Amino acid sequence: MTGEIILYNVRAYKHDVPQRGDIIFFDGSEYINSCVLLCKRVIGVPGDIIVFINGNIYINGSKYEEDYLPKDVVTVSDSVFVVPDDSVFVLGDNREDSFDSRFFKNTYVSYEDIKGKYIWGIYSEEAADIIIKSMEKLESVKRLRGFTYDYRSNTHRPTNIRNI
User: Is the distance from CB of 18 to CB of 111 less than 8 angstroms?
Assistant: First the structure.
């Protein structure tokens, strides 16, 4: 979302695995035919059996309580999901309008696609404006020093080299 500032830990799962309730960022190309970073909450971990009954989630036969969601949120699916090894089942917190594991072409998010764990976020257009202005200033300084930043390749290059 424009104006949202998010911090996530790219090293969180180098020596650990995602836990139920974690909010993760992962490469969306295998799931939605788009090269975007997706952010969803881990609901199922390897070995879990997940079913949806009367708008509620049941994991391994027990109702899963989600205190972070409004009470009137309904989560639906007609499928039964069994989470395979080295993968997680994810749902968006905006359940009624979320494209998530219930609908992905590859249902389960592989550990290798996970890029990090959510730490903190805030939505503020004012904060976004500050960051954009800071980036513009940084780019001005780099141009004065003879370098420009290429956002597509995530690299710096001398300004006197032209793209051919």
Answer: yes
